[in-house]
Amino acid sequence: MEYSLENLVKRAETAGLAEAARQREMKNSGVTADIINARMEEALRVMRQSAEKGFDPHLRSMSGMTGGQAAKLQSAVDQNATVGGNYLGRAAARALAIAECNASMGKIVAAPTAGACGILPAALLTAQEEFGFSDEALRDALLVAAAVGEVIATRASISGAQGGCQAECGSAAAMAAAAMVFLRGGKPQQSADACAFALMNVMGLVCDPVRGLVEVPCVYRNASGVAGAFVAADLALAGISCPLPPDEVIDAMKAVGDQLPPSLRETGEGGCAACPAACKK
Fold first, then answer.
1. DSSP 70-103
2. Using an 8 Å Cβ cutoff, are 1 and 147 in contact?
3. Angle, CA 273 vertex, CA 268 and CA 275 arms, to 5°
4. pLDDT one-digit tens code per residue, 97-139
5. Residue 217: is the preceding peptide bond cis (ω within 30°)?
6. Which residue of 54, 70, 114, 163 is 20 to 30 Å from 104, comparing CA positions?
7. Can you tell me whether residue 265 is helix, strand or coil?
8. CB-CB contact of 6 with 242 (8 Å)
9. Is-contact 277 211, C-beta < 8 A?
10. What confidence tens digit (pLDDT) does each residue in 3-61 have?
11. 219 vs 35, 58, 95, CA distance in Å?
12. Alpha-carbon distance 13 to 17, whole Å?
């Protein structure tokens, strides 16, 4: 199959992952490298703005179920009152902030979907804060993430209604993991392995929005998704190879999604959405 991580890695052997992704986009879209770079830079700008808005302690969604919680988590991180430490805490808070911005009708970048919008930008922006990466490096990391997302979307799905939340937050975590490996100087195959680890670790995750809204448990899965992306990236960067071919893991995710009953695919009829408290008016 043309769309595969195996082929992406092969194309990256000479040019590198970001350039391989840029060249593929140039071929598919017919636009120049400058235009592609500008689009990624604009996406990065919106990601940064959505994080800033999401940290507003007074932010509330129209339902009132979410909002203001990212500010609480960041405050706990600042007070050294969390378990995961400063770096992970800041990333989780930022992912939550962007997801809450989305739930409050703010402008976000679907990465790859609105429901999973916080994971990739939180990983990249917090890595920049921690390690000093330039905006140009983050722009290229976004290209890597996009290339990985294209493979997942083509071979499987990025839709919760089709494949469960493994296809949304799982795909976002996989994209973020691959991008983080790229930023930290890993090899293309390690980015592919990180993608596979991220998907493997959330295989079967259902889509069960309470009251049919992209809020609960969605926003919290963005926070846990960035943690999963970090773990997957660290496994790959440590030299641990995925024991299964990454493309086969993507195919397995599709097979699992196809077997999920409708109640667990964004209909709001099962999982957390079916909890008695969730069904009260």
1. HHHHHHHHHTT--SSHHHHHHHHHHHHHHHHHHH
2. no
3. 145
4. 999 999 999 999 999 999 999 999 999 999 999 999 999 999 9
5. yes
6. 163
7. strand
8. no
9. no
10. 899 999 999 999 999 999 999 999 999 999 999 999 999 999 999 999 999 999 999 99
11. 32, 17, 8
12. 8
Whole-number Å distance between alpha carbons of 175 and 170: 9
Residue 265 φ/ψ, nearest 5 degrees = -130, 70
pTM: 0.97
Which run of H or E residues covers position 123? helix 119-131
Residue 207 has phi, psi (to 5 degrees) of -110, 110
Q: Tokens 């890993």 map to which residue?
A: 186
Give CA–CA dist 194/182, Å, rounded.
Answer: 10
Please compute, for residue 143, the number of CA atoms within 13 A of its CA located in the half-sphere on the CB side.
28
Give 230's contacts (C-beta < 8 A, 6+ positions apart): 88, 91, 123, 177, 180
* Cβ atoms < 10 Å from Cβ of 242: 21
